[in-house]
Design the sequence.
């Protein structure tokens, strides 16, 4: 793990790792991810943590072959965007040979090869 | 409110010049613009300059005054950074300053040195236009982001890699005779389909190259042009800018670019025209799918119909609305900070009859440029018109 602490984000990804992932919801029902002081849609400052559902759905994905230096050992790998209701998450998709848009996915935190940093990972739910 | 005219333009060759400094690239482009305009350097009242990755490529921040020095201009100088839309934003601010009477003559342009970083280094540098916490840490990079948009587009509207390949083929063909272009060579649909994958469904030939280069213009007020006897037939008559949520995942639509629509609507209203009036356009085709999203967002095609436009010949040089007669980012190259001004330099040349591809649109009087940053979280649109 890097020495740098990113307040708000680090606590959030730790919570995902424990299976206690959350999004923020404003009083008008808009979702967002931390750190936030205001709802990015309406500016409401009343943000509450809401548990993410156990699974989301696959919206889009790509298998990346040409990586940045931080991911060269991981390539090829698949990046996906999945819809978890209040928020969409961006992570890597593992354990799926032929992804299908709409398939149900669970989210967790796993290791990656190139660097010792936490990685958001989707697997079939 | 005064009009704004393009008095002179300058452009380096776009290509791989890893040994050339960013400052030398901009020195060449700015000299071309100032000499082409026939404006005295002491009459230039500001430099607005676009650059994205100077800190990463050359350990060089604070490039405004440096580039003014290289251009021989002693005037307030400011660098603009909006990822790949950096010089588009610089142009917009120059237009606003001239219109509101702050200045009569402004040097505007941009430069980027990239190939000295190598492919992995440049890919990393480009990736920082995305959201660091939520996208970069997931391994998303610039090709990956557009691949996510392409896959979302295919899911929502249909289309396939072959449709996209026709865009690459078209833009390479347009660049064949363009001396400024990085690639002056034809490719085939098969070449595109058989190229190694970069981020599926996008392959190497769906992507613009990594490019070194610079571009510049001198913009002047109508009064200044008249007073100084400057021959400047092309005016910038509309400007617009749009922003969107930073991360792709936070957008309502993964296969649309509403920031471009907002920028276009503002620019059309500013110029008093509509999308139907545009006869030729330079759009930000950093990847083939980006051209599709652009021509739909700008109102040239309905959502879902842009994908087939190149294949059907609607956007080729003989089509109803030729797109990227310069070769676009795809074949002309994409030195990020230089691209926004380069698009306007090329389009002004097309409209004034001086471009190698002007004969494709001999009667065109109104054109548009679309310059996008990141996954289109920033967009500027400009309208150019030939004024008699
Ligand atoms: Zn809200």
Sequence:
């Amino acid at each position: 793990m890097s020495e740098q602490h990113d307040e708000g984000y680090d606590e959030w990804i730790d919570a995902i790792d424990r299976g206690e992932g959350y999004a923020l919801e404003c009083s008008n029902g808009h979702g967002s991810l931390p750190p936030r002081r205001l709802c990015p849609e309406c500016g409401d400052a009343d943000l509450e943590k809401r548990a993410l559902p156990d699974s989301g759905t696959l919206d889009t994905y790509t298998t990346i072959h040409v990586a940045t230096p931080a991911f060269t050992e991981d390539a090829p790998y698949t990046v996906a965007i999945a819809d978890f209701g209040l928020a969409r998450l961006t992570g890597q998709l593992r354990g799926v040979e032929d992804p299908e848009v709409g398939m149900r996915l669970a989210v967790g935190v796993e290791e990656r090869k190139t660097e010792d940093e936490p990685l958001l990972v989707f697997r079939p739910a | 409110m005064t009009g704004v005219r393009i008095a002179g333009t300058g452009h380096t060759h776009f290509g791989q010049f890893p040994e050339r400094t960013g400052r030398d690239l901009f020195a060449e482009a700015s000299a071309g613009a100032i000499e082409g305009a026939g404006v005295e350097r002491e009459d230039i009242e500001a430099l607005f300059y676009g650059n994205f990755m100077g800190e990463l490529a050359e350990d060089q921040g604070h490039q405004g005054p440096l580039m003014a020095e290289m251009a021989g201009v002693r005037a307030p100088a400011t660098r603009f950074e909006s990822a790949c839309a950096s010089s588009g934003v610089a142009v917009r601010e120059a237009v606003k300053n001239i219109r509101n009477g702050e200045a009569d003559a402004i040097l505007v342009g941009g430069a980027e040195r990239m190939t000295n970083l190598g492919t992995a280094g440049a890919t990393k540098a480009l990736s920082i236009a995305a959201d660091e916490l939520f996208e970069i840490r997931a391994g998303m990079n610039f090709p990956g982001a557009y691949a996510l948009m392409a896959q979302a587009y295919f899911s929502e509207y249909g289309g396939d890699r072959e449709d996209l390949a026709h865009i690459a083929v078209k833009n390479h063909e347009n660049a064949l005779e363009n001396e400024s272009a990085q690639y002056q060579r034809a490719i085939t649909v098969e070449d595109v389909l058989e190229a190694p994958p970069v981020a599926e469904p996008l392959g190497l030939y769906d992507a613009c190259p990594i490019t070194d280069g610079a571009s510049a213009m001198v913009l002047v007020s109508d009064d200044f042009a008249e007073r100084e006897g400057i021959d400047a037939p092309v005016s910038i008559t509309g400007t617009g800018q749009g922003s969107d949520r930073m991360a792709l995942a936070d957008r309502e639509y993964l296969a649309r670019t509403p920031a471009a629509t907002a920028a276009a609507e503002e620019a059309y209203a500013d110029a008093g025209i509509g999308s139907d009036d545009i006869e030729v356009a330079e759009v930000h085709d950093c990847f083939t799918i980006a051209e599709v999203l652009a021509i739909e967002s700008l109102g040239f095609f309905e959502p879902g119909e842009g994908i087939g436009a190149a294949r059907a010949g609607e956007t080729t040089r003989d089509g109803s609305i030729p797109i990227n007669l310069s070769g676009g980012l795809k074949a002309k190259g994409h030195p990020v900070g230089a691209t926004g001004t380069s698009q306007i330099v090329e389009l002004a040349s097309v409209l004034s009859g001086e471009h190698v591809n002007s004969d494709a649109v001999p009667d065109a009087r109104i054109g548009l440029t679309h310059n996008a940053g990141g996954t289109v979280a920033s967009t500027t649109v400009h309208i150019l018109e030939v004024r008699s």
In short: Chain A touches chain B through 35 residues (CB under 8 Å). The pocket of zinc ion is lined by residues A 26, 28, 30, 39, 41-42, 44 (CB under 6 Å). Chain A has a mean pLDDT of 96.
